Amino acid sequence: MKNFTFLCVLFLGIISGFSQTNFNVDCSAGTQVFNYCYTSNSTETVTFTSTTGFPLQLVFDAGSVEAGWDTIIINDSDGSDLSGLIDGDLTGLSFTSSGDSISFTFDSDGSVSCDSGSETEIEVSVNCLTCQPPIATFTAVDDCSNPDAPVFYVEVDLTDIGSASFIQIVDNQGSPGQLPTAPGLFNFGPYAFDLDVVIEISTDDINCIVTSDVLKSTCPIPPNECSMIFAGPDATFDCNNNSVDLTASFQVTGQDFNVYEINALSTCPTPPTTGGTPTSLDIDDTWSEVVDLEFDFCFFGGVYNQIVIGSNGVASFDTSLAGGYNDWGFSDPLPNNTDAALSEPNIFAGLHDIDPSVCGDVNYSVLGTAPSRQFLINFSEVCQFSCNDLQSTMQIILYESSNNIDINIFEKPSCLGWNGGRAVIGVQNPASDIAFTPPGRNTGVWDVDPSAPESYRFSPGVSTTPDYVFEWYDNGIFIGNTETITVNPTEATSYTASITYSQCTGGNVTVTDTVTISPDPLISDDSSFTITPNCDGATVVIDGDTGGFFAFNPVPTDGAVIDSLTGEVTNGVSGTSYTIEYAVNPTDICGSTTTQTFTVFGAVNLQTPINGLQVCSVGNILDFDLTILEVEILGSLTGITLTYYNSLSNAETETSPIALPTNYQTNTAETIYVRGEDNITGCFSTTQFDVSSFITPTSSFDLSQSYEVCPNATNPITITAIAENYNLSEVDIKWYFEGSEIIGQSGLDLPTVLEAGNYEIEVTNLTTSCSSIEAITVVELVNCVFPQGISPNNDGLNDNFDLSSFDVQSLEIFNRNGTQVYIKSDGYTDQWYGQSKNGDELPVGTYYFIAKYVDGNTKASWVYINR
To answer: How many angstroms separate the CA atoms of 739 and 776, rounded?
Structure first.
């Protein structure tokens, strides 16, 4: 960076010895801050180790190592290189370990270090990566549309919510927080243009909190006495004495651009020095890249639209300097065309040797809109070389149209041990043979304390030979051309101050500002009132002076009526907006008229049910759930409460509502009236529906009859239902067994019953859809009655001794003498038809049998053969 006569001796020195500094990072404590000041001839290693084994994130918040001579290297847990050799300003660098530790190692020479006071102490923030942090970008979005009250918003673009189970986005201004559950855009604001806003994304993990940098507006500051033109602050006038003096201030220009007039500015607000576009000046003693001004700027007779910025607090219109060396050493005053430190720059915002590679920021921005833009250059808290603990903050403003230059020095201490502590403020022509400097601020040793900043305006030409035209206007009508003018408003009036500059590029340009003068509300009549909309119109409370008159403006044609004394509006149309005004002494200068617009509350448009409410009755007293029609009555309406009444008058007056609308009992058809009331506005309307009943078709069974089947029955029984109050032609009949429909059975008789279980008949009226279900249970008998006779004559009737319903395993037949005449032991159903064991026909008579069931039980009885 600098040229030292003793450099070689220091560089060739052999450094011996090694020390290591270890820091433990408590993962339960969140982000922790560590400070370290390295020494000359150092090879120290600083190591950070997680207490719980989690990986670490290391961020350099501040600090520097001597650029070009000293280096630092960042190493991972396994010793691998994460950074390569780094020098200069470390601010903003961030590294993440793969294991539980991370370290950095110095390699410094013997000349300059933090310990010697020449480099900034290193400050690092270290946190354990116990979770995946949210990922977001933060953008300040300006709204400069109202130059008197510019604001800005902050847009948070959350692209990843991370691994935390809960996140919240908050600002440092007390705004309500937002709780995102997914990535997206989240907006905050508006904020006043001069606020410093910080956004934090907090999570349920202390190590996963994300914080934005300071976010600021880049809008121009509101018009003031140092603006290009300022018509003065808005004010009030006394209606009893309405004479008001208006005084404008503006930037002057003369006709000779080789002369600059310098004025000290003491009370002007200034733009922020941060938040602009960064330059390439993050190294020492360098000219920036070429930067566009975005407008033509006249300087010493030349026209320029580009500039370069020097890292030592200067600027030049010579763009060939871009990227080159910006000299720092000087001792002569301005003008000077022999010393590069003095001859190359054109604008000196306090030239002295500062080093943005150590700390601070050099940025620029364009504020405002044509034709009154400002090009802003900031040297913000930049460290002084060789005295890194001393910082300087300076600002240059170039004004479009007026071609004025402001130089603002917010802080500039002197480093007496370097270049004699010399500095200079001024402007100098491109030939470097004409210069203008404020008194006492040419080359010399001087300080600016932050408690007493200095501001200087350099105006081209001489104010005694002006090159501008100043004028006052009232609603476009010229009313004067002196800086101070007397006006006599009779109502709130806006006056425009206008200045027209002759441009060095040819032609003219006009810049204006407006001031509004209003009647003093403490002296003038007060026509304020409060209006409250209702369902029919609105009511009014006079907050100010009584005795005035109300009127529509404009007058509606829909039948709405206003009371001229009270302001009450009636017969308004639902959802319609009306404008009314209240005038107190409107023809008097101290009179007042206030206008307000309101909207009549929206109507509650209930729907009338198409079919009313119909129920199926099985008795004289009917039970109705009146609320089942609410969906049809409300349609798309929300926020409406429904109540039910027996008469329209009761519904309109909210008298005697039906207490249990979900279980309303009646024995006759009637009309029910419904009141729907808006839960917020109280507006209501009514509708109605009829309730009626239909007779439910009912069935029964002859319970004196037994419904029984034998085990494994093959001969079905018939279940017969009895129609109590319907004809078969009026209904549809379905039968069910154990809940499943029996297909093909649609009459009162069910002749196919072989199984025990629950049988149901469902009867539905074809016209009303009223239906009923009756059930009967068929029982399976344990023992059924065996046949006591057979007539085996092949006529198909009782030809066999049929026991197929009884699970018989074996059957033995005996004659009256006890002799076995027939046996079947391997499962019997109906194989015996009166034959002997040999197959011979047995004679007519009585026989005895023993039947053994599958389960081992037996039955003995007799059977008669009749041929």
So the answer is: 12
Burial of 62 per CB tally in 10 Å (0-12, 13-18, 19+): middle
Q: Break the chain down into helix, strand, coil percent, rounded to 5.
A: 5, 45, 50
In whole angstroms, give the CA distance from residue 706 to residue 99. 86
Contact 738, 755 (CB under 8 A): no
Residue 388 · residue 64 · CB < 8 Å: yes
Poorest-pLDDT segment among 12-16, 375-379, 458-462, 537-541: 12-16
- Tell me the backbone φ, ψ of residue 413, rounded to 5 degrees: -75, 170
**Residue indicated by tokens 């007293």:** 621
Q: How many CA atoms lie within 13 A of 201 on its CB side?
A: 27
**Taking a C-beta distance cutoff of 8 angstroms, is the pair 309, 291 a contact?**
yes
> Could you identify the residue written with the tokens 């009141």?
675
Q: What is the 3-state secondary structure (H, E, C) of 639-705?
A: CEEEEEECCHHHHHHCCCCCCCHHHEEECCCEEEEEEEEECCCCCEEEEEEEEEEEECCCEEECCCC
Centroid of chain to Cα 742? 60
> What are residue 595's DSSP bridge partners?
581
Contact 697, 770 (CB under 8 A): yes
Name the DSSP letter for residue 354. Answer: B
Tell me how far apart the alpha carbons of residues 91 and 682 are, in angstroms, rounded to a whole number.
62
List, for residues 830-849, the tens digit of each pLDDT value.
899 999 999 999 999 999 99
**pLDDT for the residue numbered 36:** 87
| pLDDT at residue 8 is higher than 70 | no
Cis? peptide before 711, omega within 30° of 0: no
Write down the pTM of the prediction. Answer: 0.58
- Residues 754-792: tens digit of each pLDDT: 889 999 999 999 988 889 999 999 988 766 778 889 999
d(CA 166, CA 164): 6
CA distances from 759 to 696, 702, 713, 736, 774 (A): 20, 14, 17, 6, 9
For the beta carbon of residue 265, count every other beta carbon within 10 angstroms.
16
Tokens representing 599?
A: 């909207």
574 touches 535 (CB < 8 A): yes
With beta carbons less than 8 A apart as the criterion, state whether 358 and 88 touch. yes
CA angle (652 as vertex; 649, 653 as ends), nearest 5: 85
**Using CA atoms, how far apart are residues 677 and 684, in angstroms rounded to an integer?**
4
- Whole-angstrom Cα distance, residue 688 to residue 465? 88
How many CB atoms within 10 Å of residue 705? 11
Compute the average pLDDT of residues 326-343: 96
149 three-class SS: coil
CB contact at 8 A, 758 and 775? yes
Among 203, 196, 198, which residue's Cα sits nearest to residue 180? 203
- Indicate the SS3 state at residue 488: coil
Q: Are 465 and 256 in contact (CB under 8 A)?
A: yes
β-strand partners of 495 = 474, 515
Question: pLDDT tens digits, residue range 79-99?
Answer: 999 989 998 888 889 999 999
Q: Could you tell me the two tokens for 612?
A: 């009313």
Q: Do residues 742 and 716 lie in contact, with contact meaning Cβ atoms separated by under 8 Å? A: no
Cα–Cα distance between 197 and 213 in angstroms, integer?
8
- Measured between its terminal Cα atoms, the distance across the chain in Å is 139
Name the H helices within 695-748.
none
SS (H, E, C) 252-294: CCECCCCCEEEEEECCCCCCCCCCCEECCCCCCCEECCCEEEE
Cβ(408)–Cβ(453) under 8 Å? yes
Q: What is the pLDDT of residue 619?
A: 64
Name the 3-class secondary structure at 7: helix
* Distance in angstroms (rounded) separating the CA atoms of residues 647 and 307: 86
